[in-house]
Specification:
The chain is of the alpha/beta class. It has four domains: 195 residues; 107 residues, PAS domain (Beta-Lactamase), CATH 3.30.450.20; 156 residues, Reverse transcriptase/Diguanylate cyclase domain (Alpha-Beta Plaits, 2-Layer Sandwich), CATH 3.30.70; 261 residues, TIM Barrel. Helices cover 57% and strands 17% of the residues. The chain has 30 helices and 20 strands. The strands form four sheets. The protein has an eight-stranded mixed barrel, surrounded by five helices. Strands 2-1-5-4-3 form a five-stranded antiparallel sheet. It is elongated and about 135 Å long. The two termini are 83 Å apart. The protein binds ligand C2E and calcium ion (2 copies). The site of one calcium ion has 5 residues, from β17.
Length: 764
């Protein structure tokens, strides 16, 4: 026996078996590769089994025979299934099961029969399988047809031994190796061609779908634009993809977004991100700005990962909305903001508590002017006046047109009275010059009425009424004139005086006390809430009975200035309570005290707080302050200074009522805060989807800015769950506890474990 030939046979079977399996792994859709690959691997066992057949030992002979029968039947089965796949007429699972049982039965019958019949039958079976394969695959032509023929040859070759005896064994083995070699190559070739064909079909289908799509479709890898459909080229104003291949990112994206785009691309390709949707401003290749909406995900493109982007052009809608908004808030004749824009601004500024002057300006005897010169000249004059007012007052006051010959000037300023005089002076200087129109110069006079916020009114309607009355008053004076509104009637009047006296009496008679609402940390739905702090809330119990809500008396205290004294008392009470708890339980949690804007803006505030802490011997870490976002917005610079000072001394500051409408992201970034409290109005609609998205966005933002978040007003388990899912783990609300008396709060503190708390909130 020539060992080299047998080794060759084994090597060919093994290597092609592995090669076919690897090919299958690359392209799972080609199931025949697996079946034939496995059959080849089995064939590698044939030569050793033949060798055993000729061994002197009887047992070895029997084992060799059993192995040969098993291998021959099994590989016949695998080849049959494989050919079924190759010919695209796969067997059903039921057929396969029946086939397997039949082969097993045949094996059991053949074994006792012994040589040579036990081997002749499986060999014959292989010939049948080969013949069936050849017949099935004939029609498919090419490599498949050849594979079928080779399979028949392989089976016939195996029969040689039975016909001519052992003398042909070597020749048979050599021929078998050669046939398998050819067959392996043929099948690999067929597999390659099928893969290519499948991807061509997929690609054609993709193109057919995208070529006629109205949405832009692009495929991107790295800096390469691999594919762009006609709609995409149209959106970006391109003739062909060849123009841009690699330049597109720099040409179409605003610089600030390129790095974000690259990072997103990496995440999509790596699978870290499944899909992303975003929208933003982009540029056409001629530089025109456009508004686009994008969705992107990962695709396979020519065998490698790439990003597929679908693009919708929303420029038209965007422009339309912008135009509509502009139309709704601007005056057609002069393009100045109109009455509804003024009302919106007034509402915002009143709510923010800003000081400002509102001037209403009316052209004197404009009706007569119109009658004398005609309406079209009248319109020209108004246009020219509007333009020169806006130009002259830019930076000092906003100019708006309320209708006809009436304008409004809005000038924000701390010292609004002084500002009003300045603005009026600028108007006088402007009107000392004539309004110049082609062919005519016109001198105009105006009457101006001023209302100051908050001196003359606290809401837009009151201010407009006051300014209007003043303007009509000004009409009585000749020439360009200015009149301030009447002093507000409540000033120093009965209501305020009463409130002030009641508050003063309340302070003297110790009618104010604090209740404490726990703040808890929820790590998981299963673990119990952990106490991490209290918020002190003030209560007023006048002797006449009936608790008065802070919502009622805090504004009154602010209006009368009594808040300073009340604030001192509240701080004092809170510190005394912290000390009492420390004495009783040996530990404490931070107590948050609400601070009114008026207190925070007082120059002596920080010293006052420090003195109080010192007097009581309270470590600064046990006190924190909550300030409302409105003060932080309107007095940003001062607020920032105060907060920084407080933090320097170890007193943390939280931004209360976050989300109620005034804060900007910018502000959050520039204030040295520790915590933001998401306002109850944002928690209430949870777990509604859009509301959850808002809370999630705040939490994400807070996380990037390294701010703690607290959700306030959590009332239901569903809200709590939604808050936690959004990424906020500290909560406050009736679900966990209402504001508690000091004794009840003490019981919470008693139950709390100081070690666990220390571990939870490491100091920063
Ligand atoms: P705030 O600072 O936003 O306080 C939270 C308010 O929400 C408290 O009302 C509290 O009782 C209530 N609350 C807590 N959990 C829930 C809940 O789950 N559902 C509902 N519906 N409400 C909940 P309170 O005590 O009436 O205080 C109202 C506001 O008065 C406070 O709002 C704060 O702005 C002001 N305030 C209270 N105490 C003080 C104080 O000592 N100093 C100052 N300057 N202002 C205070
Ligand atoms: Ca608060
Ligand atoms: Ca709040």
């Amino acid at each position: 026996m020539n060992n080299a030939i047998y080794l060759l046979n084994v090597a060919v079977s093994l290597s092609f078996g592995v090669a076919l399996l690897l090919a299958w792994q690359r392209d799972n859709s080609q199931a025949f590769l697996r079946m034939v690959g496995l059959a080849f691997l089995l064939h590698a066992g044939l030569p050793p089994a033949y060798a055993a057949l000729n061994a002197p030992d009887r047992w070895l002979q029997t084992a060799g025979l059993a192995t040969l029968v098993a291998l021959a039947l099994l590989s016949a089965g695998l080849l049959a299934v494989g050919v079924g796949h190759l010919a695209e007429r796969p067997f059903t699972p039921r057929q396969r099961r029946i086939g397997a049982v039949a082969l097993l039965g045949l094996g059991l019958v053949l074994l006792p029969v012994g040589l040579p019949l036990a081997l002749v039958v499986p060999a014959g079976l292989n010939v049948l399988v080969g013949a069936a394969a050849a017949a099935w695959l004939w029609g498919r032509g090419g490599a498949e047809r050849l594979a079928g023929l080779l399979l028949v040859l392989l089976a016939l070759n195996a029969l040689q031994v039975f016909a001519f005896g052992d003398v042909v064994a070597e020749r048979q083995s050599l021929v078998a190796a050669l046939i398998r070699l050819c067959m392996g190559l043929t099948l690999l070739h067929a597999a390659g061609r099928r893969s290519a064909e499948a991807s061509r079909v997929a690609r054609e289908r993709f193109m057919r779908l995208t070529e006629h799509s109205h949405q832009g479709v692009a495929v991107v890898r790295g800096e390469q634009l691999l594919y762009a459909n006609p709609a995409l080229l149209r959106i970006y104003g391109l003739n062909s993809l060849e123009d841009v291949r690699t330049l597109w990112r720099d040409a179409t994206m605003p610089e600030a977004e390129r790095a974000i785009g690259r990072a997103r691309h990496r995440k999509l390709l790596s699978g870290e991100l499944q899909r992303d949707d975003w929208s933003g401003e982009r540029f056409r290749f001629d530089g025109t700005p456009i508004r686009l909406r994008f969705s992107a995900w990962r695709v396979d493109w020519d065998g490698d990962a790439a990003e597929q982007v679908v693009v919708s052009d929303e420029t038209a809608q965007h422009d339309a909305t912008a135009a509509m908004l502009h139309q709704a808030t601007h005056d057609e004749l002069t393009s100045l903001p109109n009455r509804s824009a003024l009302l919106a601004r007034l509402r915002d500024m009143c709510a923010a508590g800003e000081g400002f002057a509102l001037l209403l300006l009316d052209v004197d005897r404009f009706k007569l002017f119109n009658e004398a010169h005609g309406h079209s000249v009248g319109d020209d004059v108004l246009r020219a006046l509007a333009a020169s007012l806006a130009a002259a007052l830019r930076g000092r006051a906003e100019t708006m047109r309320l209708g006809e010959d009436e304008f409004a000037l809005l000038a924000p300023a701390q010292d609004s009275e002084h500002m009003a005089h300045q603005v009026a002076q600028a108007v006088r200087e402007l009107l000392a010059q004539p309004v110049a129109l082609p062919g005519h110069d016109f001198f105009l006079d105006v009457s101006m009425g001023v209302a100051l916020h908050p001196a003359h009114g606290r809401d837009p309607e009151a201010l407009l009424r006051a300014a209007n009355a003043a303007m009509h008053e000004a009409k009585h004076a000749p020439g360009t004139s200015l009149q301030f509104a009447e002093e507000r009637f409540e000033r120093g009047s009965g209501a305020t005086l009463l409130a002030e006296q009641a508050l003063r009496a309340g302070l003297k008679n110790e009618e104010f006390s604090l209740v404490y609402q726990p703040k808890v940390e929820i790590r998981s739905a299963l673990r119990p809430p952990v106490l991490v702090g209290f918020e002190a809330l003030v209560r007023w119990d006048p002797p006449s009975g009936g608790r008065i809500s802070p919502l009622q008396f805090i504004p009154a205290a602010e209006r009368t200035g009594m808040i300073r004294e009340l604030g001192k008392l509240i701080l004092d009470l809170a510190c005394a309570q912290i000390v009492a708890w420390r004495g009783r339980f040996g530990h404490g949690v931070p107590v948050a005290v609400n601070v009114s804007p008026l207190q925070l803006l007082d120059t002596g505030f920080v010293d006052e707080v420090l003195r109080t802490l010192h007097r009581h011997g309270v470590p600064p870490g046990l006190l924190s302050l909550e300030i409302t976002e409105s003060v932080a917005v309107t007095h940003m610079e001062q607020a920032r200074g105060r907060i920084a000072q407080l933090r320097e001394h170890g007193i943390e500051v939280a931004l209360d009522d976050f989300g109620t409408g005034f804060s900007s992201l910018n502000m959050l970034r520039s204030l040295p805060l520790r915590t933001v409290k998401i306002d109850r109005t944002l928690i209430e609609p949870l777990p509604a989807r859009d509301a959850t998205a808002v809370v999630k966005a705040i939490c994400d933002l807070a996380a990037t800015l390294e701010l703690d978040v607290i959700a306030e007003g959590v009332e239901t388990a569903a809200q709590s769950e939604a808050v936690r899912a959004a990424g906020c783990h500290v909560m406050q609300g009736y679900l966990y506890a209402r504001p508690l008396s000091p004794a009840e709060a003490g019981r919470w503190l008693d139950r709390a474990n100081p070690e666990a708390q220390a571990a939870l909130r490491p100091p920063r």
